[in-house]
Automatic annotation (TrEMBL):
Cofactors named for this entry: Fe cation; Ni(2+)
GO molecular function annotations of the record: nickel cation binding
Keyword Iron belongs to the record: yes
Residues making up the signal peptide according to the UniProt record: none
Protein name: Nickel-dependent hydrogenase large subunit
Highest classification ranks of the organism: Archaea, Methanobacteriati, Methanobacteriota, Stenosarchaea group, Halobacteria
Domain of life where this protein originates: Archaea
Organism: Natronobacterium gregoryi (strain ATCC 43098 / DSM 3393 / CCM 3738 / CIP 104747 / IAM 13177 / JCM 8860 / NBRC 102187 / NCIMB 2189 / SP2)
UniProt: Fe cation binding residues: C63
Residues annotated as binding Ni(2+): C60, C63
Positions of Mg(2+) binding: E41
Keywords recorded for this protein, A-Z: Iron, Magnesium, Metal-binding, Nickel
Length: 310
């Protein structure tokens, strides 16, 4: 029996390792392991609540926004539950949503061009999608330019990118002037034009499905360079038979995102996606249902349970 260990497994967001056992050229046993314990929450114990965003916001340089925002909102939720805080000001909510939206664009490009795209590039998989070739690909290089614009826009509202400074419990530290707002809008508009309009997706998909190979499609900038790269990758993945591998339980949950500035609720609601259906859930329902299962870990049983009661 041959044992193969890949640790770390690169191009994912996390500290991951893979162990394989192979007999007669076939994998007979496989283990996926996340061995590193970060303990970001433990760092905040015994400290003033307003320290939490500053500490947890530096945990990751890829998902740097969510940690600072989540810890800020955790402090706000505690204050609201205690009846001493009504909620952040309207302008603070709008600024947070703008930063989160900019981060979405930047982070999705990371996923497409740096974490997943190389596996379906011409250089790695002979797909003809040379735009996705690491470092040398035209799409890869263009994505870096667009991400630079997004990080500059993010820094104008966030004070720094990555690891923003302006998220604080209660709202935002600082208010941009009109010229800064226009600068951010201009940068984001340039990136949006490069990505392409959502309504062009069916036309771009038809172009790839009609081609003999994904790499045969000539990119039309009017339909979006980024959109071509995304659709090309999805078509190449489908042709490679990826739908037949790694099928999960078809259950996902989301805490939601983008608070409404004029009241309760979220633009993208929180809830559960299960068997093709979306079930809306309240914040308390989601929190009460979250547990830490230690059945397949090296941790003791009594270290798991309900995180909210830890």
């Amino acid at each position: 029996m041959v044992e193969v260990t890949i640790d770390p497994t690169t191009r994912i967001e996390g500290h991951h390792g893979t162990e394989l056992e192979i007999e007669n050229g076939e994998v007979v046993n496989a283990k996926s392991q996340m061995k590193m314990f970060r303990g970001a929450e433990i760092i905040t114990l015994g400290r003033p609540p307003y320290d939490a965003p500053m500490l947890t916001g530096k945990v990751c340089g890829v998902c740097f926004t969510c940690h600072r925002l989540a810890s800020s909102k955790a402090v706000e939720n505690a204050a609201q539950d205690a009846g001493v805080f009504e909620g952040p000001p309207r302008n603070a909510v709008l600024l947070r949503n703008a930063l989160e939206g900019i981060f979405y664009l930047w982070n999705h490009a990371i996923h497409l061009y740096a974490l997943v795209g190389p596996d379906y590039s011409d250089a790695v998989a002979d797909t003809g999608l040379d735009r996705l070739d690491p470092i040398e690909g035209e799409g890869y290089q263009a994505a870096l330019d667009q991400q630079r614009k997004l990080l500059k826009a993010f820094a104008e509202f966030g004070g720094r990118a990555p690891h923003p400074l302006t998220y604080v419990p209660g709202g935002m530290a600082g208010q941009p002037d009109p010229s800064t707002v226009e600068s951010v809008k201009s940068r984001v508009a340039e990136v949006s034009e490069w990505i392409g309009p959502t309504e062009a997706a069916p036309e771009v998909l038809e172009r790839y499905l009609a081609a003999d190979e994904p790499g045969d499609v000539e990119v039309d900038p009017d339909l979006g360079e980024g959109l071509h790269d995304l659709v090309g990758l999805l078509v190449a993945a489908a042709q490679a038979g990826t739908a037949e591998h790694g099928v999960g339980p078809n259950r996902y949950y989301s805490n939601g995102v983008f608070d409404h500035a004029d009241g309760d609720g979220l633009f993208l609601d929180r809830g559960i996606y299960r068997n093709g259906l979306v079930e809306s859930k309240t914040r308390d329902e989601i929190i009460d249902a979250i547990s830490e299962d230690t059945a397949y870990s090296w941790y003791t049983n009594d270290s798991g349970g309900d995180p909210a009661k830890a």
